[in-house]
Amino acid sequence: MNEESGLVRELRRSLARLELALAQIADGLAITDGQGQLLWCNASFEGLIGRPRLMLLGQPLAALLRDAVDADRGLGVDGLVAARPKGGNVTTVVSREPLQVVEIHWRPVHLEQPAPYVFTFHDVSDRVSLEELRHRSQELMDQQLALAEQVHTCPVTGLPNRRGLAIAIEDALVRLDRHPGWLAVLFCDLNRFKEVNDTYGHRVGDQLLIELAQRMKEVLRPNDVLARLGGDEFVLLCSELKAAEDAVQIAERLLQVVGRPWRPEISDVPFVITPKVSVGISLCNGCGLSPDQLLHDADLAMYEAKRRPDRPVVVFDEEIARTLQWRVQIRSALEQVLRSQQLTMHYQPVVELASGRVVAYEALVRPQHADGRLVSSADFIAVAETSGLIQALGELVVNQVLQDARHSGLLERGLGLAVNFSTQQLGCSGLAKELIAAARRFGCPPALLTVEVTETALIEQPERTREELAQLRQAGFRVVLDDFGIGYSSLNWLAELPIDGLKIDRSFTATMLEDRRRHALIAAVVNLARELQLEVVAEGIESEDQRAALLAMGCSLGQGFLFAQPLSPAEALGSPTPGPLPPAAC
């Protein structure tokens, strides 16, 4: 043991000396794995990129260089390595003032497969003129463009890639001019493919993509073209259609063949995947659309399909175009809100159904558009999530709600406040600490704050979400499951989730008097929740008959237009004492 310990100590000393020696080298050194991600670098490389090593490790080297390079924004090291796998070099500009020019050399390490690469970055600023460098840079870009022009297929599936598809669409448009008919582009996106890669690895992910490509080929007609654009995106080009409806029928056949259960060809993975895709369709019958426009429109329709799980196939039309324009306007309003740090909240009362007494308020984000229209919370949050601004918006909402509560005296009156949190917010660690700190900063007792979450948030990132919610409940916050009934609802979930209550979605309340099954389902949920000591709030109550029916079931709390529409802070929180609200005009 002593001898072994001595060898370990000596090995550690040798490694430390080696690390110290490499740190003194003026050239930047970096080692990447077979996928191009950074495994190690020395101090000179840290200085070149301008970030500490801990922030660089695990990042794609190509992306790091694109961020650091000033002049050669077209520099694609990953493409160069793929073109010259045995090694090579390139000269590029890092900065122009002062001029800094670096030679990049790379060589593979053949001891492992896929082979890691060793990169060196040598400063040659003192011996390369700017004019010479411009010439070299142009030569490099010409080489890369020539290489890209030659590659028309996806290396994983063997299908045409984006370039190959563009050529196919151009040819189909030429044929459409000669032989009138319909042409369709079907943009297919595999739902939750990232989860497959993250959970089971890229090997399983690649197998699934190959399997999907084979299945999609089953619906191809003689002149159709199937392409893979990258990631989990496939495009089917259908030409010589007799009618626009033919494209929808092809899409429906795609859903059938893709949705068959699939088991990976890996013995140690005992599970079955049931793939599902969302399909967006763009159509052309000689109206002069370009390949890029057809792809763009089909892509937009696909995103609309992903947004609506009940409608997996969507055809691009003027309504989608108007929706897109509306979202652009919402994005502009969101950016203005974040710049000004001013956000007007609205508050929906939660009342006792028997007395109409207000017991709490739900905070709603309802910003006003420039034309005077109020933007719905659902639209505003959706745009914030897709634009990557949800975290900044969430922080502003919490601060504004707590500020409204403190200034109105709501906290002293003992009324509760509920705030909705999106999937992306709950998926980021640290939310619980931030919310606890905010409540302490505004002097708000945690027991008066309710965190509302959806089933999607709990399912997509269950471990992290449950950890955050557990911290909040331990600190005294309440957690309520929102929109119960429209997600992945299971009565078994109610016993397992870290929640204090649930809210029955308005879609159930609206039809409960006409649909006996929905009436029975709500009654069953209320009874089960009572047994589990969970609080139930019914949303969307608009009539006295609905209120009476819910009371008869044993549901004691609700909210809806029968009691009040969303109110401004002055209307909702300015009342000196809690009391019944008069019914609102619907």
Description:
With 586 residues, this protein is of the alpha/beta class. It is built from 23 helices and 18 strands. An eight-stranded mixed beta barrel has the order 11-12-13-14-15-16-17-18, surrounded by four helices. Helix 11 (291-307) links the parallel strand 9 (277-284) and strand 10. The longest helix is centred in the first third of the chain and has 23 residues, at 2-24. The chain is globular, with a radius of gyration of 30 Å.
Question: Which residues form runs of ≥5 with pLDDT under 50?
Answer: 70-74, 145-150, 575-586
Number of helices: 23
Amount of beta strand: 15-25%
What is the terminal separation in angstroms?
82 Å
- The count of β-strands is 18
Average of per-residue pLDDT values: 80
Q: What strand line-up does the widest sheet have?
A: 11-12-13-14-15-16-17-18
Output the structural class.
alpha/beta
Radius of gyration: 30 Å
Helix content: 40-55%
Q: What best-fitting shape do the alpha-carbon axes yield?
A: globular
Main sheet characteristics? 8 strands, mixed, barrel
